[in-house]
Amino acid sequence: MILDLRAFEEFPAKATIQASQGALSPFADSVVRVDSAEIELAIQKSGDEFFCQGQVTAQVVLECARCLARFESKLTGSLGFIACSADNIAEHLGRDTEEYVPFSGNDLSVDLVGPVQQALMFALPMKPLCADDCRGLCPSCGANLNEKTCDCENETMDPRWDGLKGLNPK
Ligand SMILES: [Zn+2]
Ligand SMILES: [Zn+2]
Predict the structure, then answer these.
(1) What residues sit around ligand 2, an ion, with C-beta below 5 angstroms?
(2) Co-location of 66 and 32 in the same domain
(3) Domain tally for the chain?
(4) Which of 44, 42, 26 is nearest to 34 (CA)?
(5) Domain interval for residue 152
(6) What is the mean pLDDT of the chain?
C-alpha cells in the first residue's frame, strides 16, 4: 500500500487509495481479518515535507469479546502524518510529537501500512461485541447463550429469581 507523491503535479492534492484483502494483516487480537480498506487523504506540500490528513474506512471481521463469534464490522479512523526524508525526521526528533513517516528509499513514496494500522487500532473498540445485548457463553458448559439456553445454574444468575426457586409445583 504505497502512496507515490510524484503522481501529483499540484498541491494541495487529494488521493484515494484502495487496499484489497491481504494488504493489511490483523493488527489486534480481536481482529480476525481485514477484508478491504479505503484511504482518503488531503496532501499539502511544504518544502520537502508532505502533510497528509484524512481518514481510513475498513471492512473487518472481528471476534466478539463475549461469545467469540466472528462478525463483520466497519472501522473508521482518522489519519494524519507528515511524509519526509529520514534525514528530515532526524532533525525533528524530540521537538514535537507529530507523526513523521519516512519515504521508502530515495523516491517520494510512503508505505501507508503503519499509519493506517495505527488509525484503525484507535478506531477498534476495547471489547468488540457482535450485538449490544450479546448473552455470551455459559461459564459452566460453554454453550453460546445467543443460540440456546442450558440447564446450568450459574452463580451469576439474577438473584431476583431466588424467591421463585421453592415455588415449583411437585
Ligand atoms: Zn457475541
Ligand atoms: Zn451451561
Answers:
(1) 138, 140-141, 143, 150, 152
(2) yes
(3) 2
(4) 26
(5) 135-170
(6) 89
> Among all ligands shown, which has an atom nearest to the Cα of 71?
1
**In this structure, how many other beta carbons lie within 10 angstroms of the beta carbon of residue 57?**
15
CB 39 within 8 A of CB 54: yes
One domain, residues 118 and 162: no
Q: How far is the CA of 145 from the centre of ligand 2 (A)?
A: 8
106 CA distance to ligand 2 middle (Å): 60
Tell me how far the alpha carbon of residue 25 lies from the centroid of ligand 2, in angstroms. 35
Same domain, 89 and 140: no
pTM: 0.81
Residues 61 and 36 in one domain: yes
Q: How far apart are CA 132 and CA 108, in angstroms?
A: 45
Tell how far the Cα of 87 is from the centroid of ligand 1, in angstroms. Answer: 48
Q: Which residues contact 140 (CB under 8 A, 6 or more apart)?
A: 150, 152, 154
Q: Judge if 164 and 86 occupy the same domain.
A: no
Write the pLDDT tens digit of every residue in 113-127.
999 999 999 999 999
Give the ligand whose atoms come closest to the C-alpha of residue 69: 1
pLDDT in tens, 99-110: 889 898 768 999
